[in-house]
Design a protein that fits this description.
The structure is a single chain. By secondary structure, this protein is of the alpha/beta class. It has two domains: 2-116, 3-Layer(aba) Sandwich (Rossmann fold); 128-279 and 310-330, Dihydrodipicolinate Reductase, domain 2 (2-Layer Sandwich), CATH 3.30.360.10. It contains twelve helices and 15 strands. It has helices at 11-23, 41-47, 57-60, 74-86, 101-114, 128-138, 160-166, 169-185, 203-206, 277-280, 282-297, 306-325, and strands at residues 2-7, 27-33, 52-53, 67-70, 90-93, 118-120, 145-153, 189-197, 212-219, 224-230, 238-245, 248-252, 262-264, 267-269, 329-330. A seven-stranded mixed β-sheet has the order 12-11-7-10-9-8-15. The relative contact order is 0.15.
């Protein structure tokens, strides 16, 4: 039996807890820590989780706990990762590890020294549709990759309180797309050009951020990447990719709740995309934790490691620099 502790029981922490209980055998949630743990009793009891605490160190100091999930606020990820590695715990850390590359490197050094599994929460790699596209590209079915196009648009912008601590659009939202671009292209990003503005909610500009962006990537293998982001798509959660190559093209469209399409004299009507990321990526969240567990039990390397987390932050920083300079910026890996 693998004993897991979860640090942070907000939206994503609760999701992982529920998925572990429902879908992963031979795994027990031994404890959950959260600053507001006293409000979690009814929810935790419903999942059969008895041990709640307000101090994450209780989890790190428990010799019976084998691994942890870090689902706490971003500014705590690095410190908890370092402490967890020193305590010999295997670590699943939500993105980003930190907003400072030097701090991330410190984490990676501690993880390497401790010899523990360290996986970063880029869940989209575990989506069956995107993984199918990835496998087709790797098998050479579309030839040499020329262009990777990613559309990622949220249904609603986050709260001002969230934006203030998010690190900005590129670090919070586009970071998933940077990782997906590397994943699909099979190559590293060497240059970034970014432009953007506040077209959805002008109050976001007051917080020093943007809500709409377009990013052009140049890959080491010569391919080009194009990412477009918006904090608000009125029709739902818009998640599409296309990889174009010398011998073909592969696309992934939005998931919808029903494949039924109504055609009549007024036109053709189909369902809108799934509305929220928890719906769209439900299976991917289950799969990524399954992979983490499998890596621990079978001494395997995680499919998304700390270096992947570091590189995506470096690309996000270059994108922010490009937005400010109005020029293409080099990504220094």
């Amino acid at each position: 039996m693998l004993n897991i502790g979860i640090i942070g029981a907000g939206r994503i922490g609760k999701l992982h807890a529920q998925n572990i209980v429902a879908y992963h055998r031979n795994v027990k949630i031994a404890a959950i820590s959260d600053l507001f743990y006293k409000n979690l009793s009814e929810w935790a009891n419903g999942l059969g989780i008895e041990n709640l605490t307000g101090d994450y160190k209780d989890i790190l100091n428990d010799p019976m706990i084998d691994a942890i999930l870090i689902c706490s606020p971003t500014d705590t990820h690095a410190q908890i990762s370092i402490e967890a590695a020193k305590a010999g715990k295997h670590i699943f850390c939500e993105k980003p590890i930190d907003m400072d590359p030097d701090r991330i490197k410190e984490v990676l050094n501690c993880v390497k020294e401790a010899g523990v599994v360290f996986q970063v929460g880029f869940n989209r790699r575990f989506d069956k549709n995107f993984r199918g596209a990835y496998e087709s590209v790797r098998e050479g079915k579309i030839g040499k990759v020329h262009v990777v196009k990613i559309t990622s648009r949220d249904p609603e912008p986050p709260t001002p309180e969230y934006i203030q601590v998010s690190g900005g659009l590129f670090m919070d939202m586009t970071i998933h797309d940077f990782d997906m671009a590397r994943y699909l292209s099979g190559s590293e990003v060497i240059q970034v050009y970014a432009t953007g503005d506040t077209l959805v909610d002008k109050s976001i500009a007051d917080l020093g951020d943007i809500d709409t962006a377009a990013v052009v990537l140049k890959f080491e293998n010569g391919a080009i990447g194009i990412i477009d982001n918006s904090r608000k798509a009125v029709y739902g959660y818009d998640q599409r990719i296309e990889v174009f190559g010398s011998e073909g093209c592969i696309t992934v469209s939005n998931e919808i709740n029903s494949l039924a399409v109504l055609s009549d004299k007024n036109g053709v009507l189909s369902e809108k995309p799934k509305y929220f990321f928890l719906e769209r990526y439900k299976e991917s969240f289950i799969n990524e934790i399954g992979e983490f567990i499998d890596c621990i039990l079978h001494n395997k390397k995680p499919p998304v490691n700390g270096v992947d987390g570091l590189i995506s932050v470096l690309i996000a920083q270059a994108a922010k620099k490009s937005l400010q300079s109005g020029k293409a910026e080099t990504v220094y890996l």
